[in-house]
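User: I'm writing a short methods note and want a consistent example. For Glyoxalase family protein, I'll paste the sequence; you return only the structure tokens, no commentary, since I'll be parsing the reply automatically.
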Amino acid sequence: MSIATSGLHHVTAIAGDPQRNVDFYLKALGLRLVKTTVNFDDPGTYHLYYGDSAGKPGSLLTFFPWRGAPLGQRGTGQATTTAFSVPESAIGWWKSHLAEAGVEVSEVVNRDDEDVLTFHDPDGLIIALVAHTQGDPREPWDHGFVPPEHAIRGLHSVTLSVDQEEATAGMLVDDLGLRQVGADSNRFRFAAGQGGAGALVDVLVTPEAPPGLVAVGTVHHVAWRAPDEETQALWRDELIDRGVTVTSILDRQYFRSIYFREPGGTLLEVATDEPGFAIDEPLLELGRALKLPPWLEPRREEIEGILPQLTLPSPVETR
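Assistant:
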């Protein structure tokens, strides 16, 4: 493969109640809601994007909140942990902060010389905070509920659970351009680009685990970065030439996407860095209003009648 990704673009998961989802990711994790839109394939459902101040690629965790949908099952063939990068000195603060918010947290463990704190969101999605030791130059969202000196910098890594690693590792290396940078028992680490936070994926081999079922509380897909549409189109052609089944290029309004599955079963996406989230509302107002793509705008009244109303908490209310 002549094209390689520079790192993670976003992770998309499935939630239950959208208001509970907003409250948790804004209040407990201190992220910014950078876009309130709908699932373009199911416009009666929100698509909520959380990230840094501008929703830069590599900072994003997004959700399809389907109220009343069944809980999923974590297992092989899916991404089972989404990890964020926090300052090296912040893990103790986060452990106390989450406990005060009523979140049950794990003991801090050390992995690859970094402290890791793991917990579940209200729907059971596994989230980890990693005290990144190599320095993370990314700026946090500094107008949220979490003080900026402790705040999340962006995605750190994702973990893919598989029943065997060879084929999955082959696609990561040969089709995405990653390289293996570590191995510890049944965990294999791969890095994109320059490596470091936002460019890592762990492949966890758990043949004893059941097959995963994607529903509430699980990851739907993991997206990797492409710099532009031209590169994405060439990438798609190369993937097809290598025998990978790939979707057509889909317009997601804020980026363009192609989708395919890695051999272990996880749905992957390659998403463009541009045009970004400020194309249909000012940067200072991101996420506050429901934004629809042009082809759904004629149905706004119908869609707004279906979607539950959201109340966005503001840190100003608590100061």
